Amino acid sequence: MKPIEIRPGVWWVGVNDRVTDRFEGLWPIREEGISYNAYLIKDEKSALIDLSKEMLTDDFIAQLAEVFDLADLDYVIVNHMEPDHSGALVRLLELAPRATVLGMPKAIGMVADFYGLTERVERLKNGQELELGASTLRFVYTPFVHWPETMMTYLVEQKILFSCDGFGGFGALDGAIYDDTCADLGWFEAEALRYFTNIVAAFSKSVLAAIGKFADTPIEVVAPSHGLIWRENPGRIVELYQRWASYYNSPAEAGITALLGTMYRNTEHALSAALEGIAAEGVPVRVHDVRVTDVSYILSDLWVNRGVLVAAPTYEGDMFPKMMDVLMMADRKRVTRRQASYLGSYAWSGGAKDAFDRMAEKMEWQVVSGVDFVGGPQATGLARARELGVQLARAVKSAG
Ligand code: FEO
């Protein structure tokens, strides 16, 4: 894509990544892609805010060259040192011999650790301002959104917040870069939720602290370093992030995420009965088959729904392995304080139910009920499964 002047003297110079299979080596983006947004401010002095991943350095530098001669660059602002934003730094500094790298003290330490750069760097203080001419940049320390060195940069006169990972989302930009020009805002919001749960949710308290730091700051444009630029409704993505972050210790939404693992369909049949019970209570439910659906997508539902139904059989005296993988990632991402039930089959000895109870305790999930049965569910097991669904749905409704 060509550079786009988003406000006078402020240019989006981002690049799309449509070739990486998994972001951070973990999260699937092969279909969705991701953008690494960078921003150029041209004033009496010039500044580049965030860069790109190393493998896209050639694209990034070619993109910049369309609107700017890097020989004239004064500052590189490192909001966040993770290499998806800083990978182009070494090459860029070779082409910009005047430029100084600015970042929070921890970021400057990481610049040395990752790239061996110890010269032409300057440590910023929280709240420090930098005059570029008619433009003033203010640097606000927002640790752990996403790493400990992370800051956000605010362009005072134009009220633009360059928020880096904060308010970002998966999804390459399909020609349009704004919330009011993209083809499918709902899709980008869903990808923002997936990004939030995969990347940022474990640091929800830090997200809320960062949002609090800008409570009295007028913001006309939210310009993250992944995903859409929010100019028509900048408050929308801030509200979404605030709501999602609040779910780390609040009841979340009145829905249920049903997770299915099954070998010979006995647990699947029991789950169907449980879903009938949930439906009878009018609680929305999303079913994920953990055997085939990547946990990246499951986390979005686990995060927003306050109910969880784990339906999986015993395998070798323990939880069905694919289900355990999901539960361990849920714990890692701090999906806490949910209403939860277990349902599953075993052949000769149980084990999955006990494993579920241990994981539920670890995540502070309130266990509403647990039903395991030997072999097939039979009529009795199906009735117990249906009742389990009813009880879980009622618990979810009353937990709000
Ligand atoms: Fe987009 Fe935490 O890097």
Describe this structure in words.
By secondary structure, the chain is of the alpha/beta class. It is built from 12 helices and 23 strands. The strands form 6 sheets. The chain has a 7-stranded mixed sheet with strand order 1-2-7-8-9-10-11. It has a 5-stranded mixed sheet with strand order 12-13-14-15-16, with helices on one face. Strands 18-17-19-22-23 form a 5-stranded parallel sheet, with helices on both faces. β4 and β5 (27-28) form a beta hairpin. The two termini are 45 Å apart. It binds MU-OXO-diiron. MU-OXO-diiron (FEO) binds at residues 80, 82, 84-85, 146, 165, 225-226. Residues 80, 82, 84-85, 146, 165, 225-226 line the site of MU-OXO-diiron.
* Termini gap: 45 Å
Q: Total number of β-strand segments?
A: 23
Shape: elongated
Rounded mean pLDDT score: 97
Classify the beta-strand content into a percent band: 15-25%
List descriptors.
seven-stranded mixed β-sheet; 12 helices; single chain; binds MU-OXO-diiron; 35% helix; 400 residues; alpha/beta
Give a topology summary.
Blueprint: E1 4-7, E2 10-12, E3 15-17, E4 22-23, E5 27-28, E6 34-36, E7 39-42, E8 46-49, H1 57-65, E9 75-77, H2 83-86, H3 89-95, E10 100-103, H4 105-115, E11 121-123, E12 129-131, E13 136-141, E14 151-155, E15 160-164, H5 185-200, H6 204-213, E16 221-224, H7 234-246, E17 253-260, H8 266-280, E18 285-289, H9 295-304, E19 305-311, E20 314-315, E21 318-319, H10 321-332, E22 339-346, H11 352-362, E23 366-374, H12 378-398
Helix pairs in contact: 5-7, 5-9, 6-7, 8-12, 9-10, 10-11
The structure holds MU-OXO-diiron.
The site of MU-OXO-diiron (FEO) has 8 residues, from helix 2.
